[in-house]
Write a structure and sequence with these properties.
The chain has 306 residues and is an alpha/beta fold. It has 10 helices and 6 strands. A 6-stranded parallel sheet has the order 2-1-3-4-5-6, with helices on both faces. Helix 7 links the parallel strand 3 and strand 4.
Length: 306
Amino acid sequence: MLAHLQQATTLGLLLLAAGWASWWIHAGKPVWAGIGTMVIVFGYALVLALEFLVLRRIQRDDPAPPATALQLARAWWHEVLTAPQVFCWRQPFRSRAVPDWLPARESTGRRGVLLVHGFVCNRGLWNPWMRRLREHGTPYLAINLEPVFGSIDRYAETIEAAVQRLAAATGRPPLIVAHSMGGLAVRTWLVRYAADGRIDRIITVATPHAGTWLARFSFSLNGSEMRRDGRWLNVLRRQESPRRYARFTCFYSHCDNIVFPASTATLPGADNRHVPGSAHVDLLFQPEVFSEVLRVLEAEPASSMA
């Protein structure tokens, strides 16, 4: 569903830009044609800039290290480059380009990785990750969380089915890597299925564990569930044991333009790792994140499911 929605959005914007340019060129006003086309095609960069301005103001009292103006500017630029690759190409048109890979257990001897995307994303987000995992001989599954705008609670069943498949294929508890809202979906799955003994480690990247300031403007159910001090998050916390957080590694950044203040992407007792100068989507593709995944994969598993 999301792929079709983003296909329509991407193609619609391109048609609108072409129509605007044709109209004003025909009217003999090429300057207006150029200005309008640039605004239509690159207007998202202005929206991102607004997010970073709000981020800088809201984050003033956060315990995370403050971001400099230069760090924010660089993070904005990298997100300007990353966002269209994800939302206008990989997710709408290439979400099935890289298939899941579950080789026979005896052919790898390695545990698998479950990739869980975040809000308004699909498995196409992980295309570069899936190619690199295949190069390293690591089994993996990348799931789609649907309904796209439904409750986060509804994603637990999808995660459960994927964990079962990975466990059956590898004989080992999988490593879960989750981006943004996906980390909350994983926490919900742990609660619903009492699954602590069936998982090796969980790595979250830019997950609003304590909610995010921006969620107050969301009109979707899953978006509203990510509000700071909201009812949904408070219920989830009451169902969890703080000892569970020791299984988590949480990557976060003071330049995250979606999940802020920055410390909301951390968990008490977790291995919280700050990556300076990285925006929300771009953080997922920072070298230290994938390097940590490889390190965990190469370590001995905490338990065996064989």
